[in-house]
Amino acid sequence: MRTHNLKDVSVKVPFGVMTVLSGVAGSGKSSLAQALMDSLESPVINLSQRAASVNLRSTPLTYLGIFDKIRQRFAKANHVSNSLFSYNGKGACPTCKGKGVTITNMAFMDPVVQTCEACHGRRYSPEALGYRYQGHTIADVLEMSVDQASENFAADEVIGPRIHDLQRVGLGYLKLNQSLTTLSGGELQRLSLATQLSGRGNMIFLDEPTAGLHMQDIDKLLVLFDDLIAQGNTLILIEHNLTVMTQADWLIDVGPDAGRYGGQILYAGEPAGILKQPDSYTGAALKGALKMD
């Protein structure tokens, strides 16, 4: 492979395991990952940090495709049309058109975004908010956190498991109606991962999936990775987290430095072997971490 700063490298990636690409920033990890994906005949699920489609109306519920199911539950319980519980249609607040905010365009300045004074950010018309399901209005449900909604829909065989998938990827704190425009790159990537948890035999690429996570959440994510591997999937991760590196089945270290001083494969093999690689910053960092432990 020869692309960007990669120096005509050749590397093998085993299937059915978790491979971590390591190295300093700018060493060529992303270039190597892209070259690997381009060289594979089988399709790759690329869950990059901007994999999720983002717009002002998109939320975790719409992304997972379960908002329609919740609307159906409300419609059936109240004997009315599904469209009444859509903030993109009949049920939308007439003032903000279901956005929950009003946007005032200013000449030569950024637009001013304010919470809608009519619906107070709830997106719905008074008529839609007059109906309830399990004691909640549709806006009440959308304002629940993922953790709250998982408990509320625990008995629902369709909605419950999909919401639980968001918990499994460490997004239990998100609101169901939270705009995806407010999520970080790492959160968007984990949201995309939630759609793949039942997949089998897939090649999945992730770019720093542990970015911004607490150690406890990283541990949960590692358990999730083990589950994906047990289902016959192959994972390729770009990572700087030392704990993730030690838990990898295969480690590929790129370096030694950044830019034109990088682009070489310093090591490829089981993680323990990199401790003997004298030119690797990753090896040195892992040695230091192991001594501290």
Automatic annotation (TrEMBL):
<keyword id="KW-0227">DNA damage</keyword>
<dbReference type="InterPro" id="IPR003439">
    <property type="entry name" value="ABC_transporter-like_ATP-bd"/>
</dbReference>
<comment type="similarity">
    <text>Belongs to the ABC transporter superfamily. UvrA family.</text>
</comment>
<keyword id="KW-0267">Excision nuclease</keyword>
<keyword id="KW-0238">DNA-binding</keyword>
<feature type="domain" description="ABC transporter">
    <location>
        <begin position="1"/>
        <end position="287"/>
    </location>
</feature>
<keyword id="KW-0547">Nucleotide-binding</keyword>
<dbReference type="GO" id="GO:0003677">
    <property type="term" value="F:DNA binding"/>
</dbReference>
<dbReference type="GO" id="GO:0016887">
    <property type="term" value="F:ATP hydrolysis activity"/>
</dbReference>
<keyword id="KW-0963">Cytoplasm</keyword>
<dbReference type="GO" id="GO:0005737">
    <property type="term" value="C:cytoplasm"/>
</dbReference>
<dbReference type="GO" id="GO:0006281">
    <property type="term" value="P:DNA repair"/>
</dbReference>
<dbReference type="InterPro" id="IPR017871">
    <property type="entry name" value="ABC_transporter-like_CS"/>
</dbReference>
<dbReference type="Pfam" id="PF00005">
    <property type="entry name" value="ABC_tran"/>
</dbReference>
<dbReference type="GO" id="GO:0005524">
    <property type="term" value="F:ATP binding"/>
</dbReference>
<keyword id="KW-0234">DNA repair</keyword>
<dbReference type="InterPro" id="IPR027417">
    <property type="entry name" value="P-loop_NTPase"/>
</dbReference>
<dbReference type="GO" id="GO:0004518">
    <property type="term" value="F:nuclease activity"/>
</dbReference>
<keyword id="KW-0677">Repeat</keyword>
<keyword id="KW-0228">DNA excision</keyword>
<keyword id="KW-0067">ATP-binding</keyword>
<dbReference type="InterPro" id="IPR003593">
    <property type="entry name" value="AAA+_ATPase"/>
</dbReference>
<protein>
    <recommendedName>
        <fullName>UvrABC system protein A</fullName>
    </recommendedName>
</protein>
